[in-house]
């Protein structure tokens, strides 16, 4: 199986289909793709937001957004890249695609933003499956948490070099 990230143009985000989540998981991942697209279109710095499809053998199984510079949220360390709206379709979960997508995001960062040494994210503290994935990939708590849209969010961070080890181990 060939797992890849496909960088999208912002206008392409509106047409993303094939990622099926139950309603609660979709809420935890930032809402529907239509909601994400609308939010992205309103951002004052859309060129600092990088939307990606996660594909397996050219079929869409997921989505993630990387943000940098002034598009970083207040909880992210300057110079890092932040991860948002990460989702793997319900039917594709549990098969290693999330781990592979995070490793491929690290490859993109290493190639295109070599000055960024960490990937940072926030996750709802009740999202146990996402927390397990992130911890398995090497993410650690930054010690920061905040009240999010759906409850307490924990800020996690992982070095790009740590994530690249996942890519080298299982490309």
Tell me what the structure shows.
The termini are close together. α3 (97-112) links the parallel β4 and β5 (118-124). The chain has 171 residues and is an alpha+beta fold. 30% of the residues lie in helices and 32% in strands. It is built from five helices and seven strands. The protein has helices spanning 23-28, 33-42, 97-112, 128-136, 160-169; strands at 3-7, 49-56, 59-67, 81-88, 118-124, 140-148, 151-159. It has a seven-stranded mixed sheet. The mean pLDDT is 90. The longest helix has 16 residues, at 97-112.
Count of strand segments: 7
Query: What helical percentage do the residues reach?
Result: 25-40%
Q: Report the structural category.
A: alpha+beta
Radius of gyration: 15 Å
* Cα shape: globular
The main sheet comes to: 7 strands, mixed
Overall mean pLDDT stands at 90
**Which sequence of strands runs across the widest sheet?**
1-2-3-4-5-7-6
* Percent of residues in beta strands: 25-35%
The total count of helices amounts to 5
Span between termini: 10 Å
Low-confidence stretches: none
Q: Helix and strand string, N-terminal first? A: EHHEEEHEHEEH
């Amino acid at each position: 199986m060939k797992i890849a990230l496909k960088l999208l143009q912002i206008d392409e985000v509106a047409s993303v289909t094939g990622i099926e989540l139950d309603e609660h998981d979709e809420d935890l991942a930032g809402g529907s793709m239509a909601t994400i697209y609308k939010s992205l279109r309103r951002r004052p710095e859309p060129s600092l937001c990088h939307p990606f499809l996660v594909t397996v053998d050219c079929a869409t199984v997921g989505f993630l957004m990387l943000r940098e510079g002034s598009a970083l949220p207040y909880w992210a360390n300057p110079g890092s890249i932040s991860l948002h709206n990460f989702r793997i379709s319900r039917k594709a979960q549990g098969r290693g695609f999330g781990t592979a997508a995070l490793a491929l995001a690290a490859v993109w960062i290493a190639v295109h933003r070599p000055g960024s040494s960490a990937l940072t994210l926030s996750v709802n503290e009740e999202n146990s499956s996402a927390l397990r994935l992130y911890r398995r990939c090497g993410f650690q708590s930054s010690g920061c948490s905040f009240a999010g849209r759906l409850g307490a969010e924990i800020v996690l961070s992982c070095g790009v070099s740590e994530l690249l080890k996942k890519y080298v181990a299982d490309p």
